[in-house]
Design a protein that fits this description.
- With 442 residues, the protein is α+β, with helices and mostly antiparallel strands.
- The protein contains ten helices and 19 strands.
- 25% of the residues lie in helices and 26% in strands.
- The strands form four sheets. It has a seven-stranded mixed β-sheet with strand order 14-12-15-17-18-11-19. A six-stranded mixed β-sheet has the order 1-6-7-8-3-16.
- It comes from Arabidopsis thaliana (Mouse-ear cress).
- Keywords: Transferase.
Length: 442
């Protein structure tokens, strides 16, 4: 049995918490809809630094400086009871209470143990992450908005994180992570810019948003059995899929992107071996960055949760009767449909007819769906804390609703790694065998 021992768990606070204008961040309907979402968790694997390099004090000190810049991560989620209308409201209190920093050791585990053949994900990897089974709502009671873990291995170091998605999205987090690594490598740099807080709030919506208490009742937690595998697609694999998809749709006014072709291939492969009936519905949900889609546009540096799920829906039969190009086209159309208007319509409808926020629990349709998380556009291999860049990226345990495919940029240029977590009650071993034969496991 592999042993991962927690050496310490500390709250790291920003250097300076007494700054004006940082007291409260109101949450939009898009934020509130994630109250029951599990913390996204990601991690990077590094070779072990020189033994004389005391990395833990250095990482904690640089984290404190980084949290002064990205101060919402050091705040807390607060609920307000509105007794006058029997509702509740939520906001982020930027009180500087800090982020959780866990130092752990796994001295018997090697880099090769993590990078198993054929893309297998070792059973112990969940112990390398700091926020397993933590939902956004847990920040109301005991959980910080950000947790990090540094696990020292026999010949490597694994740095992981989990964060509250109501506060920020992946775009923001990887920028924070880059800032942290840059400060750790070079020290505090005055050229590092302050964040720009999200100021989008739909016209006609008053905030704080009042949510009926009934809709905030506690839901049971669901811990399904899942299968995990990491698949690697080479640059050639991706270019071949893109060319095939575009040849099949045969249109000059719309081109399928590399990512859309890859996602379409995965969706088709999974559904083909899922055992679902032809009449059943299936969905593919792709996270879309809304910053360049809103009017007026939000700056790309804008901090906050500014993503939305673009959803392509069809029946199993219709999906299987068409090819890669048609499937990729449905994904492309769903992403293109995410506009300023659709974003506002969702927000207004959410406030007008407040329903319980998103949760996978008890949803049959969720079991037939894929969620495409993260993006190969995130520069996960550009982080250097002072002992070299990462050699692999991994995702932490997901909630297992249907299927979660976390997309990472591959180590070699133009490649993509996919960390897949699939509900084993639905997806059979045929899936794993198929994708292992079609793609090269890491």
């Amino acid at each position: 049995m592999v042993e991962v021992t927690v050496i310490s768990s500390t709250m790291v606070r920003p250097e300076n918490i007494n700054q004006t204008g940082r007291q409260k961040i109101h949450l939009t309907p898009h934020d509130l809809d994630l109250l029951y979402l599990f913390y996204p968790q990601r991690g990077l694997l590094f070779h072990k630094p020189d033994p004389e390099n005391s990395i833990i004090p250095r990482l904690m000190a640089s984290l404190s400086t980084a949290l002064e810049i990205y101060f919402p991560f050091a705040g807390r989620l607060v609920k307000v009871n509105n007794h006058e209308d029997d509702t509740v409201s939520f906001y982020i209190d930027c009180d500087g209470l800090g982020a959780k920093f866990v130092h752990a050791k796994a001295e018997s585990i090697t880099v090769n143990d993590v990078l198993q053949s054929h893309g297998s994900v070792p059973y112990f990897i969940s112990k390398f992450f700091p926020a397993n089974n933590v939902q956004s709502r847990d920040a109301l009671v005991s959980e910080p908005l950000l947790a990090l873990q540094v696990t020292e291995m026999k010949d490597g170091v694994f740095i992981s994180f989990g964060y509250n998605h109501m506060v920020a999205d992946g775009t923001c987090f990887w920028k924070f992570f880059h800032t942290w690594s840059k400060i750790c490598l070079n020290g505090s740099d005055p050229s590092i810019q302050s964040i720009v807080l999200k100021d989008w709030f739909c016209d006609g919506i008053d905030y704080p948003v009042h949510v009926p208490v009934l809709e905030m009742e506690t839901l049971p937690r669901w811990e399904p059995s899942t299968k995990e595998r990491v698949f690697h697609l080479s640059k050639k694999n991706i270019l071949d899929l893109k060319a095939k998809a575009n040849n099949e749709i045969d249109t000059n006014d719309l081109k399928i992107s590399s990512l859309q072709a890859v996602v379409a291939y995965l969706w088709l492969s999974i559904i083909r071996h899922s055992g679902l009936n032809r009449e059943e519905e299936t969905q593919c949900n792709v996270a879309a960055d809304m910053r360049p889609r809103l009017n007026p546009l939000l700056k790309k540096e804008c901090f906050g949760n500014v993503t939305n799920l673009a959803t392509a829906t069809t029946t199993v039969g219709e999906l299987l009767d068409h090819g890669l190009g048609w499937t990729a086209l449905q994904i492309s159309k769903s992403v293109r449909s995410e506009t300023n208007e659709s974003y506002e319509v969702f927000a207004k409808n959410w406030v007008r007819n407040v329903k319980r926020p998103k949760t996978s629990f008890g949803s049959r349709l969720a079991n037939n769906s894929l969620i495409i998380s993260s993006s190969p556009r995130f520069e996960v291999y550009e982080h250097d804390f002072g002992w070299g860049k990462p050699i692999a990226a991994r995702a932490g345990p997901a909630d297992g609703a249907g299927g979660m495919l976390v997309m990472f940029r591959g180590v070699e240029e133009g490649s993509i790694d996919v960390h897949a977590t699939l509900n084993s009650s639905l997806w059979s071993d045929v899936l794993v065998n198929l994708l292992t034969n079609d793609m090269v496991g890491q």
